[in-house]
Amino acid sequence: MSGTQDGKEQEQAVPSEAKLSRFPPRRQFFAFAVVGCFLLCACGMTTVRAGAWIAGILSGESSATSEVKRAAAYPWPSNSASLTVAVSPSVAESLRERAGKFNGLRLRTPDGEMMQVEMVTRSSSEIVAESLQQPGFQAVVPDSSLWLDLIEVRWATLFPTESGTLTASRVGQTTLFAVSPVVIAVQLNAAQQLGWPHQSIGWQEVHTRAAAPSTNFSWGHPSPESISGIAATLSKFHAGAGITRGLTTEIATRADVVDYVRQAERAAIVLGANGRSHAEPMQGERGANGEEGKVKGPLDAFVTQEQAVIAWNRSSDRGLSWLSGEGKAGPVFPNGQLVAIYPKEGTLWADYPFALLELDGRAGPAVTRNQRSTYRAFTRFLLSEDSQYALLEAGFRPVDLTIDLMAEPSPFAETGIVDPLSPQTLLTLPPQPVLEIVMDAWRLSMPPVNVMLVVDTSDSMKGSKLSGAKIALQGFVDQMQGDGDRIGLVEFGSGVKQFGSLHMLDAEGRGHVLYMIESMQAGGSTRLIDALWAAQSELTDLVDSEATYAIVVLTDGRDNDSEYRLRDLQRAIQGGQNQVFVHTVAFGRDADAGLLEDLARIGKGRFYRADETTIEEIYRQIATSIQMTE
Amino acid sequence: MIRTRLFIVALLSAAVVLVVGTLVWRTITGNATALGLAPVRPQVVRIQVITALPVTSWVQAAADEFNATGHLADGAAIEVELIPMDGLAALGKWERNDFAALPADVPLEDLPQEKLEALESFPTAWIADGRFLVEMANASFREQLGRDQFLNDGQYRMSPLANTLLVWGLFRSRGAPLLENLGPPSWYTFHKAAVAPTGWKELGGDPGWGNFKLAVNSADKSVSGLAAIVTAAGEYFDRTDVLAEDVVDPQFGTWLSELMGATTHLVAGEKGTAKSVALFGYTAGDGGQFLESELLRNMAGIQNRWQEPVLLYYPKLTTWFDFPFAIWAGPETSTAQKEAALAFQNFLLSEGQQRRALEFGLRPADSSMRVNAAEGSLFEQWSRLGVEDDVSSVNVMQPLNRELLSALLHLQEMYEKR
């Protein structure tokens, strides 16, 4: 210690060289030895640790490395605390606002990871479909628990277990944070004409009034991709069968009931992925299977959630997205006040279950422990007083039962247009198989479809390409379920190899088409235009003004041998008696995309690119698109 | 000499830069604690407890208090984390070995690091809805591993934490006409109400109430829903020991499906029927069978939302739930974790926490403790709605066994398919 003091003193007095020389040789040596040893140890430790670290990287054993590896293999790291939530459009805005506030808290998991919640918007039916695969999200908020049941049922079908055993769930921990009943939102004057507020009003009154030509009353509802759409569609089945519960497959498929539903579907404007407007033609395409409709309006009534009525009345410039729950904008109502009608036959509830998916890591990334922590933390946040009042403010009924809905500043206390003591009774949901029929009811109002499938089976289609195409085509045929639907097939290579004229899709006709698909064989060149000529000839002169006509052509190559030219085909398609829509699929990289795009443009259809992994989905989309075409 | 010194100084400077640089880098990349740059956290024994849904709110409140008061196991702070889960879901996970319990012939020391790390999230204990569930899980373990994993004796033996039972509940407005026309609540009464073609119109109520709606938990998703069917079968066959062959009786099946046709099953997930009634009112059920604790816990909410209470009636036959705290005996959890679980179990059984249970509508495990023993007891608060202190006169159904459970699940599948 004294030596150091000496040194300091000398440091101020003499140059550094002198300082060093003034240490006694032994002390100088000792000082060097101590400092040297320390630094040697430090360097050694650092080197060893660094070496171990590098060795770990090379051997793949260190935690850092495994994270790197997992990040490459999985969409989220194994310690991720970011929770992605697929949320129904009807609650997306409110939840996004809450997530922003939650993220602003900058909470961390016990191991120090930052908790983050991100919302992605999906329709409830998209949530179901994606949850059964390996979704890019870990939690879901559909608009009803019904969809979670659907996930479980379909999951159990995908991974069946022995009867009487306890099955594994796809849906894990679930929490409700707010609810809202499905109501018929009616313009104030239209509601008064219906007898509101003195008379109780039901679905039946709305159906009858919409069907009567003298009343000029129009109503609409979302497609059965949302709980509001299911309630509205189910009400048609109940009204058609004259029942208030106990809908069975037998009743739902009875001719008189189907007829009533068909008429009711046509009398209503149905919006959403599986619905369409009767006022204007379809506009563009949305997502994988969605079609967007645009409505002229205004409507007298629309089926939606109570919360949307409150939101509308508070800010009527919000457009249809608030009402349909499907994110479509359009002037559905004039800027007047809306009234919530709780149908006397009963209604359903939107309960927005916030559910963690049990992604177990078998076929993709598992939900991480940190993501579970984030789920729990966000759940607590949603159930906090602040969030519950925010949800009340937005027009939802919060699950915190201590909150008085009728006390200021509750929007329920403001007006008499919503009734917190309603609904009094429920529209009973039928069992799963019957519900599927209800969800497919939109098909009943669809016009018949005449489709010619044109398939290139030239030499280049050999192997997995052809087998993939066969599966996709079979799926397409399966999807066509309308009573009057007809399908034909043109298989071509160096010429037309098989020509199947349009067949009604009864058991025999369906079997015939499927047999033709199965018996396709690869070989020869590509006479694409000639094959299309044959297909359009089958369609252009048919007489059915209500039907839809379409050609779906698939090729993986270039036309190299046709006698007809593109302009011949264009003339035939555009000059024919029927509007024939042409959808084209470029299968693989070698397909003549330019020609196929031209064909789709000429035929007012769509051009798709596909490979062996997407071909099935592409055909599913095309089938939906054709069914939606008016 | 100067060159040598310069060389030494340069060497030392380079070494210092290397050391400091490495430390800074590792700090930035997050391994600071291991290098001593960040404060070392106190040692923690973390335990996960699968917890039956009807006791989750009570146990969670207790766990929060327990964690906050710094309980120790082997000198380390105990941190309790609950995994709320219905007993049926938990039983399914044990039976399928979803938690990855080790096979009997694989010693812990042979496990690779990755598997050892995975065991960190292995549940240390299970609070099941009833002892019968633990026994069913043990039967499965005997088959798979050759031994019980939840013990009936010794230091880690399972101990019931609290009690509740199935009771009838009816909205006051609905109860008055129903009881007048059909008699006291029973499965037979509700069956008559369920099959009334015009619903409340012929049951003496307001026709605007629609059909009679029965609130019962879903049998394939909750233990209490399954137990409700067992009590229905008990009443139908007029005995307390229902057998597997009873529930497959076609006549009983028809009667049950008519009865269940009036159920609504509005809510997915963790919420019980009483919470469902509080949220959705009459649409969730004009009346039905509830866990007493859940009904009492949601009574204030029901009154607040729907401006009237649900009155309680005690059935002729019921099922009790005793929520045993069962500590996993296998090597997947450490001795420190087992000790931590035991400490938490003792905490839950302490007099203070048993009194707290009354505030959650649960009857204490200690039968000598009266249901009005705590100031905030929900039994005391809602006594005017029909709550009874002494329910010893109610007949108790025999516990569910695996054979009966399989038969009931099969019945439920058939019902859903129909």
UniProtKB/TrEMBL annotation, chain A:
Keyword Glycoprotein belongs to the record: no
Top-rank taxon, per record: Bacteria
Cross-referenced PROSITE patterns: VWFA (PS50234)
Residue ranges annotated for the VWFA domain, each copy included: 450-622
SUPFAM superfamilies documented for this protein: vWA-like (SSF53300)
Keyword Protein biosynthesis attached: no
InterPro entries for this protein: ITIH, VWF_A, vWFA_dom_sf
Name by which UniProt lists this protein: VWA domain-containing protein
TrEMBL record, chain B:
Highest taxon above the source species: Bacteria
SUPFAM superfamilies: Periplasmic binding protein-like II
Name of the protein: Extracellular solute-binding protein
Protein source organism: Caldilineaceae bacterium SB0664_bin_27
Taxonomic lineage of the native organism: Bacteria, Bacillati, Chloroflexota, Caldilineae, Caldilineales
